[in-house]
Amino acid sequence: MSNRLDPSLIARLPPFSKLDRDQITTLLEQATSQLYPAETTIFSEGQEAERFFLLLDGHIRVVRLTPGGEQVIALHIPPGQLFGIAQAIGRKTYPAMAVAAEDCIALSWPVNLWQRFCDDFPGFATETYRTVGERMGELHESILAMATKHVEERVACALMRLIQQGGRKDGNAVEISFPVTRQNISDMTGTTLHTVSRLLSAWARDGVVESRRRHIRILDPHRLVLLSGA
DNA sequence: TCATTAAGTATGC
DNA sequence: GCATACTTAATGA
Q1: Which of A26, A134, A179, A197 is placed for a possible disulfide with A214 were both Cys, Cβ 3.0 to 4.6 Å?
Q2: Which fold has domain A7-144?
Q3: Which nt has its C1' nearest the CA of A39?
Q4: Which strand C bases fall within 7 angstroms of a protein CB?
Q5: Which nucleotide minimizes the distance between its C1' and the CA of A193?
Q6: Nearest nucleotide to A149 by CA–C1' distance?
Q7: From CA A143, how far away is CA A74, in angstroms rounded?
Q8: What digits encode the pLDDT tens for the residues A54-100?
Q9: C-alpha span between A209 and A211 (Å, rounded)
Q10: What is the pTM of this model?
Q11: Would you say domain A150-227 falls under CATH 1.10.3720.10?
Q12: Sign (positive/negative) of CA torsion A184, A188, A156, A202?
């Protein structure tokens, strides 16, 4: 695959921002670029971690399955971030499933390059550990919310997490820049799509949100914060 | 305060 | 026109 990728694609991204032109070129030469259509599973939980990924465009859902076969959405990965980085947490298998929430473009490298990236590229290791730390914080937040908050507050929190990582500002309003269904939100919050639907309808009547199919816009972010019980 | 059931409308390939 | 997304009401834990 002699794919010619533009260095400017990744030069500004945190894991690579401290690298010079040559280093970035080397890095891109070893990468595979691929399109993952919406709803594609990129890798599954427990699968041998053969590659690690950098998301260039789109959003990824990180999903875990319960023993009962129900899915729980742990978090979302925004463009510009690494994912599938089992090595960073000392694992040889992926800890969760990664699904393309919309059409996604990602670079990937074989795992045997991971250590070399850490050794050779200044800032790569520290930046990846920073994002790992951030994701842990996010997980802790939702665990706490699950344990202590009522459904309405949890759904409001979930919306806030969505706009935090996939929000596109539009004046006072913020809209979630990738497709989200009520089922998705219920999978984030441990409730049913019916409850999510009722809440969104009620909030729409109050002018807090506005939603089309697979598309949500928050008209009044401040009131959402209040609803989240924060 | 919620899940569940059930029965409906809307939307988009 | 069929599957998928979404809405709403009723019932009961």
Answers
A1: A179
A2: Jelly Rolls (2.60.120)
A3: C4
A4: 5-10
A5: C6
A6: B1
A7: 10
A8: 999 999 999 999 888 889 999 999 999 999 999 999 999 999 999 99
A9: 7
A10: 0.93
A11: no
A12: positive
